[in-house]
Hints:
Layout: E1 5-9, E2 16-22, H1 32-42, H2 51-54, E3 60-61, E4 65-66, E5 69-70, E6 75-80, H3 101-108, H4 113-120, H5 125-141, E7 145-153, E8 156-157, H6 162-165, H7 168-177, H8 185-200, E9 207-214, H9 230-239, E10 244-249, E11 267-274, E12 277-281, E13 289-290, E14 293-294, E15 299-305, E16 316-318, E17 325-327, H10 338-361, H11 366-381
Amino acid sequence: MSRLVWRSAGESHGAALVGLVEGLxxxxxxxxxxxxxxxxxxxxxxxxxxxxxxxxxxxxxxSGVKGGATIGSPIAFRIANKDAVxxxxxxxxDPRPGHADLAGCQKHGHRDPRxxxxxxxxxxxxxxxxxGAIARHVLGAxxxxxxxxxxxxxxxxxxxxxxxxxxxxARHAAREASDxxxxxxxxxxRMRAAVDAAKADGDTLGGVFEVVALGLPPGLxxxxxxxxxxxxxxxxxxxxxPAIKGVxxxxxxxxxxxxxxxxxDAIELADAPQAWGRFRRATNRAGGLEGGMTxxxxxxxxxxxxxxxxxxxxxxxxxxxSGETVRxxxxxxxxxxxxxxxVVGEAMVALVLADAVLxxxxxxxxxxxxxxxxxxxxxVADV
Length: 383
């Protein structure tokens, strides 16, 4: 059963987005500036549209905190929408291909795509980023880092080895300096050219981002039941992000093309003391997950994002009233938002991992949680 529960509410052009996070231990000091910094990263990226120039996302904590620290009660927060014009916007006369418009109208039995798209919009992911930033405070107390970066955009591939080649400070600096939140400066200009070409054609681009978590203990998640397996929980979390069409763990689909001798990770005794026990994997092809549980190796996940379906050139659709073929309504959109999707993916992974930590170690207060973690560390060392 989940210990950490989060919910979101609000529409893209409504008064505000609202979030709720429940299950955090008391005694966590929340850094609101850090939460806002994650929200700002979500708004970055070359190829973003006009909405990102309108909004300046900031979180307003409404409950669950006293003197800057959690008190064990639900944390409610609000992110205001500057572009709060939902009642003034026109109702599209046609559903847009690739969006929730048509299936949502059919589900609810009406012809008002606005009533669907306002909630289905990726604007809702701002709540996820804020909730994930709150959850990261649990992971940070254990020394766990969650880091996302762009691996590919519009067919341009970044150097996938850069993450392992850079020290932590250099990784963060490289990502911060990139308009695509990538770690490969050589790929940035080619990505920029791809975005410019797509914009000139009225088209959009997708791509791939990677999320890595470092410092995790072995044994988070479980194997005894399907819903305990962390592989499914992480995969479901990433696939819940709008426009995500595929998720890989470790080698991912490449594992299906190799023999087992080139897929599985040999276990060996560590030459030096490890943070979690005497053993280590000689490789990490499994991406830090075996049998639905963390192994103590880096968690490596990748997600594929489809191109944004709102095209300036407009895809063919059908007018609700006349039944005639029309070009789908276009208001404004990004050419690409793969870098932003990576920020959301980072947040979703943080939420799942924080839940798994609380599930494993429990504790109403931060001190209890940390004591349980240290007791587990000593026990793992004896295995």
